[in-house]
């Protein structure tokens, strides 16, 4: 998709695609709230407190919440498979110049005379694509360092993101009722409600702020700013964690760090 965008707004387009994650988080929270409410109303046994254990219907509820996530995944997969490859990939990697010309004519606003000239002489201008396997020495020599740097960066980021997500319910517990006084569906509903509020108040606005500024600030620079703010907030949380928990002030720095 970035290859089809103009250079002035390419960063905004890529960031806009990635911002769909924010709407996905909001949608998943809404789905959780709806299903939990339906089960709580329809299952009298589900209204019992969690302690000492949740009702059997809670197992069916979370499985249905998870199954609904299949719908956007299937739609995304179908859309991607129906989407044509970029002309650049088709010409340079697949070596199919005629198909690249057809796809360029479909999606790009290029003069037909220029495309016809490329079509007539393109086969002679294009060198044959190099052939080497994914596990070859040539591949690792050309792309190994970039691939390793990308994978390690994502791994380190995910360690922070997913570890803080796992402790999300513990962070919110000071604002929730004890499990002795609520049922499983009410607790899940309240957690999803907190997530929906954070999505609307922080995640989605943050994505839109990135979309509006990424081409001006720079893609690398805006990521460095975001990681720096996350590091500062996490460091402050570590230094004063006990005090913030005791005074019920952990929610704002936690949400700022996460979103």
TrEMBL record:
Main location as per UniProt: membrane
This protein's UniProt keywords: Membrane, Phosphate transport, Symport, Transmembrane, Transmembrane helix, Transport
Keyword set includes Transmembrane helix: yes
Molecular-function GO terms, alphabetical: symporter activity
Biological-process GO terms, alphabetical: phosphate ion transport
Subcellular location: Membrane
GO cellular component: membrane
Family as reported in the entry's similarity comment: Belongs to the major facilitator superfamily. Phosphate:H(+) symporter (TC 2.A.1.9) family.
Source taxon at top rank: Eukaryota
Record-linked Pfam families: Sugar_tr
PANTHER family: SOLUTE CARRIER FAMILY 22 MEMBER
Record has Metal-binding as a keyword: no
Transmembrane segments: 12-40, 60-78, 147-171, 191-212, 224-244
Major facilitator superfamily (MFS) profile domain segment(s): 1-259
Recorded topology in the membrane: Multi-pass membrane protein
Protein name: H(+)/Pi cotransporter
InterPro entries xrefs: MFS_dom, MFS_sugar_transport-like, MFS_trans_sf, Sugar_transporter_CS
């Amino acid at each position: 998709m970035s290859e089809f965008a103009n250079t002035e707004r390419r960063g905004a387009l890529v960031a806009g695609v990635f911002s769909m994650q924010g709407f996905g988080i909001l949608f998943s929270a809404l789905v959780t709230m709806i299903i939990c409410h339906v089960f709580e109303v329809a299952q009298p046994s589900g209204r019992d407190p969690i302690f000492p254990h949740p009702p059997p219907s809670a197992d069916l509820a979370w499985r249905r919440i998870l199954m609904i996530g299949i719908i956007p995944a299937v739609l995304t997969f179908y859309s991607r498979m129906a989407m044509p490859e970029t002309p650049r990939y088709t010409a340079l990697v697949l070596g199919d110049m005629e198909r690249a010309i057809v796809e360029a004519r479909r999606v790009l606003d290029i003069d037909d005379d220029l495309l016809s000239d490329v079509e007539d002489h393109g086969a002679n201008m294009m060198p044959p694509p190099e052939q080497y396997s994914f596990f070859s020495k040539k591949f690792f020599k050309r792309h190994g360092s970039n691939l390793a740097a990308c994978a390690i960066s994502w791994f380190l980021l995910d360690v922070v993101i997913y570890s803080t997500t796992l402790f999300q319910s513990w962070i919110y517990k000071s604002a929730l009722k004890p499990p002795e006084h609520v049922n499983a569906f009410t607790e899940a509903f309240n957690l999803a409600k907190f997530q929906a509020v954070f999505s609307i108040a922080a995640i989605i606005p943050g994505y839109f702020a990135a979309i509006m500024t990424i081409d001006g600030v720079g893609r690398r620079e805006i990521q460095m700013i975001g990681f720096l703010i996350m590091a500062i907030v996490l460091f402050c949380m570590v230094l004063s964690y006990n005090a913030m928990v005791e005074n019920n002030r952990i929610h704002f720095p936690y949400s700022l760090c996460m979103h």
